[in-house]
Amino acid sequence: MKAEYDVVVIGGGLSGYVAAARAAERGKRVLLLTDGLGSFPFLPGHIDVWGWAPLEKSPMVLDPVQGIGEYLRSQPDHPWGRLLDVLKESMEFFRTVCGSQGLVYNPAAGRNIMVPTPLGMARPAFMAPESQYVPGWDAADKVLVVGLAEYKDFFPLAVAQGIAGSRPARDVRTLTVSLGLPRHVDSFTLAGYLERDECREVFLNRVADAADGRSLILVPAVFGLEAAAKVLSSVKESLGVPLMEVSTLPPSVPGLRIYAALRRWVMSRGVTVTANVRVNGAWFSNNGCAGVTACISGREHKFAASSFVLATGSFVSSGYSWQGGQPVEPVMGLPVTLPREGIEGVDGPFLDGKGKDFMRVGIEVDDNLNPTGPSGEVICKNVFITGSKLAGYDFSVEKSGTGIAVASGYKAGNLA
Ligand SMILES: Cc1cc2nc3c(=O)[nH]c(=O)nc-3n(C[C@H](O)[C@H](O)[C@H](O)COP(=O)(O)OP(=O)(O)OC[C@H]3O[C@@H](n4cnc5c(N)ncnc54)[C@H](O)[C@@H]3O)c2cc1C
């Protein structure tokens, strides 16, 4: 079968889109097959490289490269051990691609910055969009936290308490304004409303008096989706006060902004994106993977290529399933590794910060992100594994998921 594409990327989450973008930038003919939005609606907008040191008593990390280095000494198989070589260039690539679509990230300074959580407490992140990080925000004295009456997933009082708690002398006020919408709306719908001039006008009129004399205004991160840059700069200009968006509960508009920016960019570079397609199998030749199959509108389709990026995510995105008490990789049948200590601790809330053994389930790879078998032998030289498919890490305790997705997607796009 003649290959129409050089690279087929399977999975359209963060790592799959970055892999497609990098391969396209290298002049490859790329097809991206995906079944859904992946984790984008959960992403807070920041890029996390390494925020917490799981083995330390005081775990907050300010220097992620140093933190990763220390962790790798006892856990050499952690994915960062194979990705540190592309950390800097992959972050710059991501920043350039997003920036070209109007989603501007502050340059990574190499050290973590502190950003507010939906509860107002500060937490470390490697890189943040300009709208979600105003340098010096945590020193602002007169803060106004604005909520929206129609939006129930943002809690101005909790944010205000979180911020005031970190420095009690601060003057932190809250205000909840109605946009005059007929009903409660989700973040995604609200972002669409706020792209309309008349809706923003209502917001500005209701906030103007309270904004007077404040040194910082915090709002939920819902101020526009595709047109967010324009929306935010017009609000900032009208209020005349620094404005910062705080990430919200899912669906997260900043995550969807990343999705929109990456998708626009890859399509402008000729990547064919086929959404709502579930890849259900692969066939192999002596040279490795020869192609993948998918059922589209009731008919089986075959996609041959020279290289494949397997970016189908973990359990949350159905990138793995459980069969007979074992994790299974359903597209290529690659071996999936369990943590050495086995699987325990699936009880308790998913993101309770304590970590879950099943998060570390995944495919083992070599330095080129090629899948390896039980003795470390490479299984397929033309298959590259990215993001949350990789074995041996737990983003929920490390605050590393988006960083690993960007770095591994970039590296796979380099090698595929
Ligand atoms: C609730 C939640 C909160 C999180 N918060 C953070 C955070 O604050 N900071 C952080 O750094 N990380 C966070 N993460 C982790 C982060 O989202 C992931 O590590 C990262 O986004 C994974 O990207 P990915 O591309 O590997 O996979 P995914 O985003 O899971 O994408 C996989 C894609 O593959 C598709 N797919 C799966 N199987 C197939 C198939 N057979 N055929 C075609 N397509 C298929 C899926 O539909 C999906 O589009 C969070 C994750 C979750 C679930």
The run of helices and strands is: EHEHHEEEHEHHEHEHEEEEEEEEHH
Per the principal axes of the C-alpha atoms, what is the gross shape?
globular
CATH topology of the largest domain: FAD/NAD(P)-binding domain
Terminal-residue CA separation: 19 Å
Number of domains: 2
CATH class of the largest domain: Alpha Beta
Class of secondary structure makeup: alpha/beta
What's the name of the CATH homologous superfamily of the largest domain?
FAD/NAD(P)-binding domain
* Percent of sequence in beta strands: 15-25%
Count of DSSP strands: 16
- Helical region count? 10
Model regions low in confidence, pLDDT < 50 over at least 5 residues = none
Please summarize the sheet with the most strands.
Answer: 5 strands, parallel
Percent range of helical residues: 25-40%
Mean pLDDT: 93
| Name of the CATH architecture of the largest domain | 3-Layer(bba) Sandwich
Strand order of the largest sheet: 9-2-1-13-16
Bound ligand species:
flavin-adenine dinucleotide
Question: Which key phrases capture this entry?
Answer:
2 domains; alpha/beta; 5-stranded parallel beta sheet; binds flavin-adenine dinucleotide; 416 residues; single chain; FAD/NAD(P)-binding domain
What do these coordinates show?
With 416 residues, the chain is an alpha/beta fold. The chain has 2 domains: 7-102 and 257-415, 3-Layer(bba) Sandwich (FAD/NAD(P)-binding domain); 135-241, Rossmann fold, CATH 3.40.50. It has 10 helices and 16 strands. It has helices at residues 14-25, 64-74, 87-100, 156-166, 187-194, 197-211, 228-239, 253-268, 395-398, 401-415; strands at 7-10, 30-33, 113-116, 122-125, 142-148, 171-177, 216-220, 243-246, 272-274, 279-285, 288-296, 299-304, 307-310, 321-323, 326-328, 383-385. It has a 5-stranded parallel β-sheet, covered by helices on one side. Strands 6-5-7-8 form a 4-stranded parallel β-sheet, with helices on both faces. A 3-stranded antiparallel β-sheet has the order 10-11-12, with no helix packed on it. Strand 1, helix 1 and strand 2 form a beta-alpha-beta unit. Helix 1 (14-25) runs parallel beside helix 10 and helix 3 (87-100) crosses helix 8 (253-268). The longest helix has 16 residues, at 253-268. The model has no long low-confidence stretch (mean pLDDT 93). The chain binds flavin-adenine dinucleotide (FAD). Flavin-adenine dinucleotide binds next to helix 1 and helix 10.
